[in-house]
């Protein structure tokens, strides 16, 4: 990798890309040239996955053959001259010893994908696929499987604003057990299925029903929100596909998360790193750099102890273990004091630019054991860096080379859509259709949609004098979920007479278990059906509920507006 030249000379500063196998750190304040240098590091000729919290790594896709003005024009601000900018780039790259053939080669060999999890502005990402059963090799490795479960559940907990300890928090433990049990049973769960399993988990009681229900309702609230729909569409988090090379092409996948809130960012990054870690554990050893992970503006995702967001544990584990299989990690930040010391100490290559404070310099130089370089780092100019390699020669100062891609700054939503629509920027993975996504599974596992009891018979409903309505299978806890749900909607109809003689109908839905935590809700049109859905199975009503006596009492309670009384702590359906 050609990083630049030493000040006052034409001597190039180069580093073998295999050095990144020991991981790298790029440090520098705003205006130091950190982004430009980072983009050159990830143009190392191996598959790259980038996490982009700021939104400017899409610039890596702006590589223009010939550096012609017409290629720059769509991306240049209205008040700037595209021809002047193109001339500036031609002069800058030539001054760094980069000819047009080299730029054309990069454009031809890079397969670039710009993905926007949680948004359809670019190419969306189906995060529900990240809950699917992992490959058999991961399941066979109990440590790897439990690590993936922990990372996945930590992300889900973060999504609902819960900072849960994987070892001590009962909610985390229950959800982890539900997910691991589903995978062990050969199921291929999605988030909706997990919500139902939380209500009636396939194991002995551990968490009280009310607590399980509260957790299920919080998750269900996320799933039911219209803003969550983009999370269910797009490409799967399939590391094999994202890192697969094709003849003459090297994939570079940028996950732009600038549009997400903090909880959503941690949720996605936790899932991504969990899958990356599981992928790395299934790879054979390698002396060469096989792939690279680049995390820009990483501050906040791997903070010092005791903070532990969902991304921290899998990221630190990657830096500790992944080098053995040829997976390198490069972290970039302008706030090194906000990084956990374990991340700093696991990096073998450092590019240190201008830093904001004396505390930042002290933290960095102490981390590499080079306090004597404080004066050198303090005097660095913009686009100057100190290169330090833990095992590879003396530290050297260099001027970073001119970027081969156009550095326009962060992408707006309009620019992301413009970029993705360009035929030259066809993504590495195309979003699957809804039919394909719902029927396919990378592991060949069975679907985990809720199913009826293992009974080959379909008995008729028991005789009753009570009018029946049947809950639509797509409705549960006010969310629209696919799959079967064994249940019957109990409706209460109050008919107070009005002065005009028109009957006013007040309908209620009563959920089991009967308790204050699940009050009756107004019914929405289409929630219940007059006839049972196809494949319905019936189970007996609880012994305490006599159809004539108890249902009449329930009707009266609902009509009077009084809360229903808890009669059973068991979840059942009828």
Automatic annotation (TrEMBL):
Q: Where is the composition biased (Low complexity)?
A: 432-448
Q: Which domain of life is it from?
A: Eukaryota
SUPFAM superfamilies documented for this protein: P-loop containing nucleoside triphosphate hydrolases
Biased segments, Polar residues type:
565-574
Region Disordered, annotated ranges: 431-469, 555-574
Protein name, per record: Helicase HerA central domain-containing protein
Q: Which organism is it from?
A: Emiliania huxleyi (strain CCMP1516)
Lineage of producing organism = Eukaryota, Haptista, Haptophyta, Prymnesiophyceae, Isochrysidales
């Amino acid at each position: 990798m050609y990083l630049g030249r030493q000040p006052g000379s034409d001597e190039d500063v180069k580093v073998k890309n295999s050095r990144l196998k020991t991981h790298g750190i790029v440090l520098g304040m705003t205006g130091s040239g950190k982004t430009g240098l980072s983009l050159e590091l990830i143009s190392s000729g191996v598959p790259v996955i980038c996490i982009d919290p700021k939104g400017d790594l899409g610039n890596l896709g702006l590589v223009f053959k010939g550096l012609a003005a017409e290629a720059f024009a769509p991306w240049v601000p209205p008040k700037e001259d595209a021809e002047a900018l193109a001339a500036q780039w031609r002069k800058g790259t030539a001054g760094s010893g980069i000819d047009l053939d080299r730029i054309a080669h990069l454009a031809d060999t890079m397969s670039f994908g710009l993905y926007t999890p949680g948004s359809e502005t670019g190419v969306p990402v189906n995060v529900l696929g990240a809950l699917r059963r992992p490959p058999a090799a991961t399941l066979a490795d109990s440590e790897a499987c439990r690590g993936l479960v922990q990372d996945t559940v930590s992300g889900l907990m973060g999504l609902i604003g819960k900072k849960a300890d994987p070892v001590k928090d009962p909610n985390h433990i229950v959800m982890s057990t539900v997910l691991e049990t589903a995978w062990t049973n050969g199921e291929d769960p999605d988030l909706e299925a997990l919500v139902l399993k939380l209500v009636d988990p396939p194991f002995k009681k551990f968490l009280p029903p009310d607590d399980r229900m509260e957790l299920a309702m919080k998750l269900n609230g996320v799933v039911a929100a219209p803003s969550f729909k983009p999370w269910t569409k797009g490409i799967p988090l399939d590391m094999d596909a994202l890192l697969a090379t094709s003849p003459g092409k090297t994939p570079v996948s940028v996950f732009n998360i600038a549009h997400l809130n903090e909880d959503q960012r941690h949720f996605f990054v936790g899932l991504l790193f969990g899958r990356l870690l599981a992928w790395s554990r299934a790879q054979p050893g390698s002396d060469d750099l096989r792939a690279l992970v680049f995390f820009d503006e990483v501050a906040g995702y791997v903070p010092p102890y005791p903070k532990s967001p969902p991304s921290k544990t899998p990221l630190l584990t990657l830096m500790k273990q992944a080098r053995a299989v040829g997976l390198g990690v490069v972290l970039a930040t302008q706030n090194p004091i906000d990084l956990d010391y374990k991340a700093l100490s696991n990096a073998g290559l450092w590019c240190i630019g201008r830093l904001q404070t004396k505390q930042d310099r002290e933290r960095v130089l102490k981390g590499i054991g080079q306090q004597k370089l404080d004066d050198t780092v303090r005097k660095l100019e913009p686009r100057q860096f100190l290169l330090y390699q833990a095992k590879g020669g003396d530290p050297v100062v260099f001027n970073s080379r001119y970027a081969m891609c156009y550095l326009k700054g962060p992408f707006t939503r309009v620019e992301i859509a413009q970029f993705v629509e360009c035929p030259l920027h066809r993504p590495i993975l195309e979003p699957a259709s809804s039919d394909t996504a719902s029927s396919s599974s990378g592991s060949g596992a069975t679907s985990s949609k809720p199913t009826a009891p293992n009974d080959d018979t379909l008995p008729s409903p028991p005789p009753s004098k009570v009018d029946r309505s049947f809950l639509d299978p797509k409705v549960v806890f006010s969310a629209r979920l696919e799959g079967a749900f064994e249940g019957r909607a109990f409706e209460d109809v109050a008919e107070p007479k009005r002065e005009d003689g028109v009957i006013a109908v007040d309908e209620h839905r009563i959920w089991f278990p009967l308790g204050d935590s699940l009050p009756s809700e107004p019914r929405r049109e289409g929630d219940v059906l007059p006839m049972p859905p196809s494949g319905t199975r019936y189970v007996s009503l609880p012994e305490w509920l006599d159809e004539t006596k108890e249902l009449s009492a329930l009707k009266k309670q609902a009509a009077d507006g009084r809360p229903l009384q808890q009669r059973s702590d068991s979840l059942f359906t009828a």
